[in-house]
Task: inverse folding
């Protein structure tokens, strides 16, 4: 990590509308030493740009064609002295050099109970469609550390919700969103407060 942990600088990686990111930003505003200082996206026109603008947070778009994408991202992270990375609907694999530089400081949220319904291509509506199609009776969220394999890192927290026979992918998505909005900011804050406390006692 880039600095003493009196204050922690957070980067959010996002590809979509940014609803999870917006919720995280709003939650962390009440915690004085945790700061969302940077947003990284891989899409020019995603809703996350409006979230960044409304919260006065710099956002950088990483070109898909950039063969040195990991180096480019790392340059931005270092420039903003980022300590911790939160994936919030980011659909690309995080480059290995980022994971090495931020070991156990990159987390993700997945809209299913891993290891079920994880892996490449399993995100958003595709997860919910599969859960409903397979007539599962429960689903939920998994918050986990990120490693080099999609949806494979050590699990931090799982929370469940029921899936009824009347649920559709859309209604299940709404249930999952509620879990995401409640638990993801809480887990982020808890992890980072622990890092600050550990630093202070050492």
Result:
């Amino acid at each position: 990590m880039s600095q003493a942990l009196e204050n922690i600088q957070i980067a959010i990686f996002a590809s979509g509308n940014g609803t999870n990111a917006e919720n995280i930003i709003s939650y962390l505003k009440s915690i004085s030493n945790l700061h969302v200082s940077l947003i990284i996206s891989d899409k020019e026109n995603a809703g996350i740009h409006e979230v960044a603008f409304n919260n006065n947070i710099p956002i950088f778009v990483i070109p898909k064609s950039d063969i040195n994408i990991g180096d480019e991202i790392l340059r931005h992270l270092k420039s903003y002295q980022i300590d911790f990375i939160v994936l919030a609907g980011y659909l690309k694999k995080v480059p290995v050099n980022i994971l090495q530089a931020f070991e156990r400081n990159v987390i993700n949220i997945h809209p299913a109970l891993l290891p079920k319904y994880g892996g490449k291509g399993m995100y958003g509506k595709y997860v919910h469609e599969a859960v409903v199609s397979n007539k599962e009776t429960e689903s939920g969220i998994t918050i986990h550390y990120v490693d080099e394999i999609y949806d494979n890192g050590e699990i931090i927290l799982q929370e469940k919700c029921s899936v009824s026979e009347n649920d559709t992918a859309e209604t299940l998505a709404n249930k999952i969103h509620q879990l995401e909005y409640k638990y993801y900011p809480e887990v982020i804050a808890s992890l980072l407060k622990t890092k600050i406390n550990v630093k202070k006692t050492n």
Summary: The mean pLDDT is 92. The chain is about 40% helix and 20% strand. The radius of gyration is 17 Å. The CA atoms of residues 26 and 85 lie 17 Å apart.
